[in-house]
Structure prediction request, 400 residues.
Amino acid sequence: MPGETLNAPPAPPSRADRVLPKSLLYSISARIGGSGLDTDAFETLRASYHGGFLGEAVAYDNRQKEIPSRYIHSLRWHPVRLISFIERPYYYGAKKKYLDWIVSGQLGSGRFDLFHSWSGDCLQSLRMARSRGIPSLVEIPTWHRDRGKTVRPPASIAPSTKRHWKHSFLLDRERFLEEYALADLLVVLSEKAAETFRVQGFQDEKLFYLPRGVDVERFRPGPRPPVFRAVFSGALIERKGIHHLLEAWHRLDLPNAELWLVGSVHDEAKPHLKRFWRDNIRVVGFAPDVENYLSEGTIHVFPSQCEGSAKVTYEAAACGLPQITTREAGDVVNDGIEGIIITPGCIDELMEAILHLYQNPDIVARMSIAARERVVENFTWDHFRARLLGGYARAMTMKR
Prediction:
C-alpha cells in the first residue's frame, strides 16, 4: 500500500522522530462533529489538537465540544445561504468556492506551516500555499476525477456569452486536476483509489494511504438472528449496487432468509424494488442508529461500484458481520477471510457468494470473528490518527 503497510499497526507518534508542523490550517466544506464526513473531520482535528499544533479549522459548522471553539472558524451563517434555492450542484459548488476564498486569505497571513483540505474545496488555497512555500495535503473522498480512465474526455464546448450566472459555481474537471498537481501529498482512502491515480502517471511518493476508522465501542457484535439475515446499509442508489442485490435476492428465493435495506430510498431504486420485490425484504429507510441493525444481521452485502472507502464496511466488520463486497468499496475485507470479494455488477458472483454463506454457517462464524479482529487491530480511530500524523510528518519533509 502507498504510505505504509496496512496490516502493521502504527507505532505511537513521537515528536522525537517526526517533523510535525507548528500550526495546521484545516478546511472542509462540511461540519466538525456529526456523522459521515463530519466524523472524519472531527477525528482529523483531534490528532492535531492533542498533538499541540492545531492552528485553525474552517468549516461550515461546529457540532462537537472536545476541541475549544476558538480553534474552529465556523461559516454557519455564510452569505451563500442567500442562493440556497438553486440546484444542489450549483449551491454546493458555490459553498466550496466561498470556503476556498476564505481559507486562501487565512493562508496569506503567514500564521500556518501546513495546510490540509479536501479535493474540490481548495484550488485558490493551494495556489496561495504554493506561493508561500507551505506544505499541503489534499484528501480524495473517492477516486481520481477521471475514475482510472486513461482516455481524456472530449474537450468542453466554449462557454456562451449568454451562459447563466449560476454556471460559474460548478466545479469543472480542470479545477480538480490543478488541485492534484498543486498538492504536495494526495491522501487516498483505498488501494483502488490509489490505482486510479497511478494510471494517470502519479507516483506512489505523492500518494498517502489513509484508511478510515470506526468506533468499536459503538459498533459491536450482537446476538445473531434465528434466520439468515442479509443487511445492506447505505443510500439505496445504483452506484452502490442496490439494483444488483435486489435482482440476486429475487432470483435466489431463499427459504428462512430475509434482506434488510437500511438507508435512504432514492427514486432510482424504486423501480428495482417494485420489479424484484419479495415479502422477505424489509425496507428500513434512513437510520441514525445503524449499529442496531448491523448488530442484528448475519452478513452484510455491499456490492458498490465506486467508493473512496465506504464507512459502512468498517461498521459492519466492527459488528462482526462477514461481508460480500467489492474491491471498489475499499480494503476492509480480505477475500475468503473476513468475507467475499466479487466483481461489481456481476449478479452471478453475487448470488453464488450469498448462497455460499447461506449454506455454510460455520464459515460465517469464522469470518465473523476475523472481521471484528481486523477492525480492532487496524481500523480504530486511534489507528487513523496515528497514520494521519505520519502523513503530516511526510508532507513536512517533502521536497517542493
